[in-house]
Amino acid sequence: MRHLLIALVIGTIGLVTFLSVRPTHQITDTPEAPSALIDTIDRQHVGICVWDHSGLRESPGKRGTYITPVYFGEQVELLGESQYLPAEKRTYIKIRLADGKEGWVNQYLFAEKAFLAVITKSTDIYRRPDFMTLKDEKFEEGEIVAVAEVRNDWIKVIGEKHHKSGWITASEAFSIHPNDILIARLYRDAMNKENAYQQEKALQEIAITYRQDFSQLTQLVQNTLQEVGLRTILPEDKLYITSSNVNLRALPRKDSGQVLRALDEGTICAVLDKGKREPIGNMDDYWYQVEYEGEKGWVYGYYTSKKQTP
Length: 310
Prior knowledge:
The chain has 5 helices and 20 strands. It is α+β, with helices and mostly antiparallel strands. Among the domains are: 46-112, SH3 type barrels (Roll); 179-231, no CATH class; 238-303, Roll (SH3 type barrels). The strands form 6 sheets. A 5-stranded antiparallel β-sheet has the order 6-5-4-1-7, with no helix packed on it.
């Protein structure tokens, strides 16, 4: 039984390396992670990257030949070698990636002898495993963390880029279930989008793709989607761009020639005027004169929130 539990948890950690692959959407229960289960994890040679795009190099130091990036949440194998560089005042450790690549990384960017988890409800952070050391910050639902140490009912966790770290209590406050880790990663990516429109679009994709009972974090996605959706409701004198690289033209014609600039998806513009309707290919919409960052021009309505519905 012990070996089965170890295999389950190690498989969970390894999943994050392959988050770009869609799961089969099999609905599974999402159990809590009791300390009894955590204690079975063999993490002596496991490290978790807590900094996105950490550089793997052939030799210790900034001058070492760059091999590949290591991504936030990625599991690595610790090879037991380290080297301190006085010139950089840093320690480098040697690791192996899941594809067999080996190299050196900045020790600070990794949680050693750790495993991956996701916070499932807002929870207090303590400086030490003592209730009298409460910090003025919390881990919030959906945050991905590395669990570095377990001491009775206390768990030491490290957040992304060490922005938050410390001890938490109550094992039900986090999960090591693969479904929860997957949704947390997709949620993180969605919330890192540049603007509310892009965030809403990414959250909608998660909500559509994964059923409500796929993970205990799907409700977080739904709640955040409602909040973000409210931010994308614009007054009549505003519109936002709904496609990438939409041309802002000097004149309201496709063949006008002069393109002033390209507008990114989610860009919010002030509407100055509504022009004539013009069919273009299988599209049929109005031109809108808009202003963005002090520059005035025309955009085709089909590529904006003003798009005409059939």
